[in-house]
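Lab notebook, bench 4. The sequencing result for the construct came back, and we need a structural model before the next group meeting so we can plan mutations. Quick request posted to the team channel:

Model the 3D structure of this chain.
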Amino acid sequence: MTSRTSLYQAHIDLQADMTDFLGFDMPIRYKSSSIVDEHMAVRENVGMFDTSHMGRYWITGKDTKEFLNYLVPRDISTLHDGMAGYTMILNEMGGIKDDVIVYQLKSDEFLLVCNAGNRQKIWNWIDSFAKLWKLAGKDFNIEDKSDTSCMIAVQGPRVENIMKDLTSDVLPDKRFRIAWISIGDTPVLCSTTGYTGEAGYELMVFADIDTINEKAIALWNQLLVKKVVPCALGSRDTLRLESGYCLYGNDMDETTHLLETGLDFFPFVKIDKTSGFVGQDAVLSFKDKVDKIRVGFKLLAKGIARHGYKVFVDDKEVGWVASGTQSPITKEPIGMAYVPITHKEKGSLFQIEIRNKKVDAEVIDFPTFDTTKYGLRRQL
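Done. Here's the predicted structure in C-alpha cell form:
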C-alpha cells in the first residue's frame, strides 16, 4: 500500500496524474499542463513541487555536530547557525547510502533531510551509530518528523518576489542558508536550497499529525493564489538532469563508490578530514583505483538513452547509462553515464546501445542550458 503526503488532496483537486514513486502516491504531471510546460515555468517564471515525501530527522544535543561530522564525509564543523550543506552518507565500503542535506539551526540543533526511498534505511543507519555513541555517554537525541511536516520547493527566477509578497520577514539571501519566517500565522523553516538549478526556497512546516495536512494545503493554496505553477515528478526529473544533479537509485546507489560519482569535491566532501567519517578508509584506499566516472552526455542522433542501457567503446561494453531524457530547452537527448576514466573529458566519444542499435554520444558539461539565460548564474 502506498503512502500519501500531506498535500495528496491538493494534487487530487488539481487533477494530477498520480503514480507510485518510492512507495508514495505522487503527481507525475498536472492536467492543466505538460511536463515541458512545468519545466519552463521553473526556468522562466516560478513553480512549486511537493517534496514532503522526503525524510526529515531532527537531531539535538551538545554532541550533535560531532556525531553528524562522523556520519558524513563533509566537514560539518565548518557550518554555522543558519547554514546548510549538501553531502552524502556512505557505507563502510565508500558506497553511497544516500545524498542528504544537513541544516544547522543552532550549534546543538540540526535537521537532516534524506531521499524518500531511503527514509527507513537512513533512520536505521543513524540509529545504529546513535546507540553506540550514547553508550559512550554522548549527548544527542534523534526525532523523525517526516510524517508531521510538509516540504514545498518553490523554484524559479521570480521566486523572491513571490516570497516577499507572502512574508515581511527577512529571507535568507545566499545559497544554502536557512531562517525561520512566518507566512500568515504559520512558522515556516525557509532554506535557499532546491534541486532544479534555479534560484529558490524550500519551505518546511512542522505540526502535529492531526493538523499537518491542513497547514500544508493552506501554504500550497497561498502559493497558488500567487500564480505559482504546480509542478510534478516529470519536470523535476528533467530540471535536475539538465542541471547535472544526481537522482539516487538511478545515478548512484550503495554499489557506486563516492569517487566514481565525481561528487568528491569541496565543500560536499573532504575525504582527508582529520575527525574521520564512516567509510573514510575505503575512500582513501580507492583513490588510485578509480577506473570509471560519471559524465554528462548528449546523443549525436535521435533517441533517448534510458537507465541501464549499455555503453560501448570500440565495440567493447565499458559502462552504462544512469539517466536520460530530452532537454526541453535544447531539444537534445541528454543524460548521465558511467564511462572509463579515459573518456571523462568534454568531447570524448562513446556509443550507447538503444534498441539493439549503437548510437554515438559525446561527453558534455553541465548544466546543458545557456547559463546567461537560465539557471543560478543567469545574467538578469
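The mean pLDDT is 97.
Will bring this to the meeting.
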